[in-house]
Amino acid sequence: MPVLRLFASAREAAGLSVDRIDGGTVGEVLDEATRRYGERFADILTHSRVWVNGQPADVRAPLREGDVVAVLPPVSGGSDDSRGNRGRISTPISSEQRERLEEPLPFTKPESDMSASGWFRPPDIEGSLARLTSPRPVVDEQLNGERRAAVFEREPLSAVPDTDKPHVRLGLAWIVVTIAAAAGGRVTLGLWMSAVAAIAAVQVTKVWMERHERPVSYVAVAGAAALPLAAIGGLDTVNIIAVLVVVITLLARVTNVTKAPSRDVALTLMIIFPIGLATAAPVLLRNVSLAAPLALFAFAAAHDMGAYLVGTGAVNDWEGPVAGIASIFCVTLFVAVLVPSFGPGGPFVLGVVAGILAPLGPLAASIVLGDRDATAPALRRLDSLLLLGPVWAWVAAVLLH
């Protein structure tokens, strides 16, 4: 025998929410319900939707034993009636009923009804888990005037270029100021890179502290800013400052013990050294020649521009880095011609190093931040140098000597 379920005003008109009515079709069940519940129910039925087993159905739909016929008045999503009264509520309902009806209707089989009609199925736990663990499609609304197709979510650490700020103008300003600082000498470049390192460390430290982590904030900022200043004096000075930074970090946490001191120390050093060494590398190169840091900045800038211009709005994560690598190849040819001091094959070695490490910089920045979506503009400006800077500086120093 089919089960009739009533919602909102239809339930009030009938005086009950569930009934069992014999009938071979939806129309027969509704006709019998009309005879049982009277004219008020019949009036509500004229502008209600009727579903069978959770699916819309008309009066001719056949029914089997255990099928559920649901009557949904307009407040639950009813359709237009013949008189054009769209969405009309026949009977006032309480706010509690409205909130309950606005939720998705479960259409679950009553436990007392053990029908074999086959409409009831237990929750698909395995399927739900598969949907949760698989990439979910996302759709970008509008880009460059064209509707983009659905794409899968990006990897957790991949950097996603965006266009919500004037990145091109900021990038050009960064290049101009940095080249001017390099041209001014190692002291000028060291001061400029120290200021950038301090700002980046402040931003990263803030990101971690907002997650209730406890890095030694003043040591993180001071240590990151001290390394490029130490690079003015050369590599030996950098080594001394690096050891002092580790010792001071340990002492700072020992004198103010927290619940996880080792984690705090590791987090502090993770902020200091990637930022500090990335900004110290060009200063160390400036001690050798002007061409060396300018070549490093040229490789990093070429990657950033190629990755941004192509990667912005790209469907695949790899499109931006590949464009950045292609840009590095172009710069390599210019360096080979303009900087003969690297030797005949030196620029190509440096180009290979840049092509490998520059695309990994944004991923390293995401690791330093712990979240690719965290806001740290100064660190993102340096991200191509995080891995490239120290390694490239060492290889370049070997080639120049």
Q: Can you give a write-up of this model?
A:
With 401 residues, the protein is mainly alpha-helical. It folds into two domains: 3-122, Ubiquitin-like (UB roll) (Roll); 167-400, no CATH class. 57% of the residues lie in helices and 5% in strands. The chain contains 16 helices and seven strands. It has helices at residues 9-14, 26-37, 39-45, 95-102, 125-133, 167-184, 186-210, 217-230, 235-254, 261-286, 291-311, 319-338, 346-357, 361-369, 377-382, 385-400; strands at 3-6, 18-20, 49-52, 55-56, 68-72, 137-138, 151-152. Strands 2-1-5-3-4 form a five-stranded mixed beta sheet. β3 (49-52) and β4 (55-56) form a beta hairpin. α7 (186-210) packs antiparallel against α8, α12 packs antiparallel against α13 (346-357) and α14 (361-369) crosses α16. The protein starts with a strand and ends with a helix. Residues 76-93 and 97-154 have low confidence and may be disordered.
Structure summary:
The chain has 401 residues and is mainly α.
Main sheet? 5 strands, mixed
Q: Assign a percent range to the helix content.
A: 55-70%
Tally of separate domains? 2
**Beta strand count:** 7
Can you write the helix and strand succession as a string? Answer: EHEHHEEEHHEEHHHHHHHHHHH
Shape: elongated
Order of the strands making up the biggest sheet: 2-1-5-3-4
Question: Which residues form runs of ≥5 with pLDDT under 50?
Answer: 76-93, 97-154
Kindly provide the radius of gyration, computed on alpha-carbon positions and rounded to a whole number of angstroms. Answer: 34 Å
H/I helix tally = 16
Report how far the terminal alpha carbons are from each other.
93 Å
Roughly what fraction of the amino acids lie in strands? Answer: 5-15%
Q: What is the arithmetic mean of pLDDT?
A: 78
Class based on secondary structure composition and strand pairing: mainly alpha
